[in-house]
Amino acid sequence: MNRNRVLLGLGGALLVAFMASGYVYRQLQQAGAGQAARQVQVVVAGGALKLGQRLTADDLTLLEWPVGRQPPGSFARLEDCVGRALIVPLVQDEVVLDQELAKREAGAGLPVSIPEGMRAMSVGVDDVVAVAGFVTPGTTVDVLVTGIGPAGPVTRTILEHLRVLAVGQELQTENGKPQTAPVVTLLVSPEDGEKLTLASAEGKIHLALRNTVDVTDANPGPVYGSTLFQGKAPAAAVRRGVVARASAPPPVPFTVQVIRGDKIETQTFLDDRLKQAVP
After folding, report:
1. What CATH number belongs to 40-112?
2. Tens of pLDDT, residues 138-181
3. Any idea where the domains of the chain sit in the sequence?
4. What is the C-alpha to C-alpha distance for residues 54 and 90, in angstroms, rounded to an integer?
């Protein structure tokens, strides 16, 4: 009797355990199915993509992404991106965003990287003007011009914070390597474009490379050739606010020979006007 009760208890326990394990298994299956359903696909770069590059289906791929976590402006279909050009470079597996693509009718290449209201202008350069080739696409420069002004030779900074769009025909650089080309293309406003054109025609320009995060306007004053090589006044004179004047030369006397009999004497005299000048 006791043995039957034990067997009956074991059977009931096994039945409950089986039912519980089946329930847990079904819940895990449903959770897995729900998790899979909460994934969507977004369009990403299939490799490194260049600025101005017109996208094809081979340039893109799809990547699983959690539902509701997609970046704003992302795409779910390749065909929504194909045929549009990039206005920024992308790295592999980077999500393609609508704000990073030009309109389909905008074309490709350099024009798509020019914001509305701005212009791209090229200037002739050499290794010195282009800072030994370190002026590369994406860097920031100031423009200095040297010419002949009303007071003689002068150098001044005419433009600041200009972004370099291209060096030669290259729209981007590889790992910051120096680039040498006969022209550099700068992003300018229409007014600054006129200044740059006049400076290139009337004087010699130089580019001053600056840190891209430095947004401070220096506004340096012009430097004139007439003052560039002058020495500094004595510190005491500078403190008094005057420049020491050179001492006046001493008055020049005149001589007269006086003959008295057989004696000849030479006497020196100062003119009355000179006497007044002598302290």
Report:
1. 3.90.1210.10
2. 899 999 999 998 888 999 999 999 999 999 888 877 766 788 88
3. 40-112, 117-226
4. 12
